[in-house]
Design goal:
With 501 residues, the chain is α+β, with helices and mostly antiparallel strands. The protein is built from 15 helices and 12 strands. It has a 5-stranded antiparallel sheet, sandwiched between helices.
């Protein structure tokens, strides 16, 4: 296990008088009224116990520390106290900064006057909720349990699902002002050592005051912070997290965050779901391909509408052209401005529905879309056909399981619409070329982001675009460079074994 924190003071603060120690601790916390201290004498020794009132389990302090010390007849010192207190994880501290940091993490400090060290024990009072259903990554089949804000609860779930002795959970403390526990999770027998070293290096190198959440951490450690595409996968589903760990990837968990990070990842991973594994292989393949097609339609339909009506009328069938002309007869705006207004309006409705309470948000999305859509058509701000196209584009963007990738697709539509309005189909295909070049150049933890298409590995198609039967998919994705490439030993007869009666 590793621990990063602020620099420690080399000079020892102890020994000192009990009263001075209590005063200095109070000053360290700006005379906070929540800093509680209890002084008592035992066998002629002065002893003080200090803790922050709302950070600790006070029952454990009085029962397992103060009561044990007062009931004993022996004379206490640092060594004997470490052996007799029935709480694990005692630490010897020699500076106020160390003690203060421990107290902020939910520890209790014990000092016997005249001793060279103070002892701290971790007895935090954990405020946590029970594991519940996932909110943003909903599933029809498979486990419904989601991560919580407690890293201890999340680790318990991971160990429960990955009952493997090679499971490693390295500990880091990141944050100069507000230290936060971060765990690096991987299977030592499968995960590539270079991937582990690279993630460990990035976590050790990270300098920040605070890590608010897993999504914030990804912005510090991803390969290209200026890219619109996410390069690390953030999930709230333990089954997705554990599946990726078994495939040779590595995970990162942050305390007080209900989600975890997976790396390395590729572009097509954002269109996968563990639900694809819980259905038949042909259904899983169909759904994955449908999501990719939906993504393409989401960023294509509205720009093609703008380009066709602005520059390329010859591409529109005559019957449809008449309908378009009649629909746009009252619209005072050019197709470019018309499309941008409607796309922006749809984003407003979607954002308002997401921020409002659940029941009100659902009503806002349905009623707002119908009422406002009908009103703007009657007012002549847009055409009926564009309403249909934008609605289809919006629905297509919702098929992406990852919220981050879905947001990237939503944003990409706007520059594509602008390019279509100025340069027509040439602007659209030029934008596609730029997007493709950008995606091909990206990396995730220094691994190719557009694998298995570039570099092309046909065996890895099963782990990204396709979902072939389990008895034919015994190799892990080579893009992750796992130590153990095989999920299981391939039998001599590759046909699916017959089931005996």
């Amino acid at each position: 296990m590793r621990r990063r924190s602020r620099k420690r003071t080399s000079s020892s603060y102890f020994p000192c008088e009990i009263e001075k120690f209590a005063t200095d601790i109070k000053d360290f916390f700006q005379s906070s009224p929540d800093v509680t201290s209890k002084q008592f004498e035992h066998q002629g020794q002065k002893i003080i116990v200090i803790f922050i009132n709302y950070m600790v389990e006070k029952e454990n302090i009085y029962k397992h520390i103060i009561h044990v010390m007062q009931q004993s007849d022996e004379e206490w010192n640092t060594e004997s106290l470490m052996n007799k207190i029935p709480i694990s994880g005692g630490e010897l501290r020699s500076s106020l900064k160390e003690i203060g940091e421990d107290l902020m993490m939910g520890s209790v400090a014990i000092y016997i006057e005249g001793q060279e060290h103070c002892i701290t024990y971790g007895v935090p009072q954990l405020e946590q909720r029970e594991p519940d259903r996932a909110e943003t990554e909903s599933l029809i089949f498979g486990p419904k349990i989601a991560f919580t804000e407690s890293i201890q609860t999340n680790l318990n779930i991971i160990h429960w699902r990955l009952d493997n002795p090679s499971l490693v959970t390295e500990k880091f403390i990141i944050g100069n002002e507000i230290p936060t526990e971060v765990r690096l999770v991987y299977l030592k027998s499968i995960a590539n050592d270079e991937n582990v070293k690279e993630m460990r290096r990035r976590l050790n190198k990270l300098q920040t005051d605070d890590v608010l959440e897993s999504s914030v951490l990804t912005q510090y450690i991803d390969d290209n912070s200026y890219s619109i595409f996410p390069q690390l996968y953030v999930t709230e589903l333990p089954d997705r997290f554990c599946y990726e760990i078994k495939e040779g990837k590595i995970g990162v968990m942050v305390d007080k965050s209900p989600s975890a990070v997976i790396a390395p990842i590729n572009f097509f991973s954002f269109f996968e779901s563990t639900e694809d594994l819980y259905t038949r292989w042909y259904m899983g393949t169909f759904i994955r391909l449908m999501r990719l097609i939906a993504m393409f339609l989401s960023i294509t339909l509205t720009p093609f509408y703008v380009a066709a009506l602005t520059f390329h009328y010859e591409f529109i069938p005559t019957a449809l052209l008449v309908s378009l002309g009649h629909s746009r007869s009252r619209v005072p705006f050019p197709p470019l401005l018309e499309a941008l207004i409607l796309e922006f309006l749809i984003e407003l409705i979607r954002e308002a529905g997401a921020r409002l309470p659940t029941k009100v948000g659902q009503t806002m999305g349905i009623v707002g879309g119908i009422v406002i859509g009908q009103a703007i058509v009657q007012a002549g701000f847009t055409s009926n056909i564009l309403i249909i196209i934008v609605a289809l584009s919006t629905l297509a963007s919702f098929t992406v399981p990852s919220y981050l990738m879905g947001s990237a697709i939503r944003i990409m539509r706007f520059p594509l619409i602008i390019m279509a309005g100025f340069w027509g189909f040439i602007g659209i295909f030029y934008s596609y070329a730029l997007i493709l070049i950008h995606v091909v150049k990206q990396q995730s933890l220094k691994r190719p982001y557009f694998a298995p298409i570039y570099p092309f590995r046909y065996k890895d198609l099963n782990n990204s675009i396709l979902r072939i039967p389990f008895h034919q998919s015994n190799y892990r994705a080579a893009s992750n460079m796992p130590k153990d490439k095989k999920r299981y030993e391939e039998p001599s007869n590759t046909k699916k074994p017959d089931i005996e009666e």
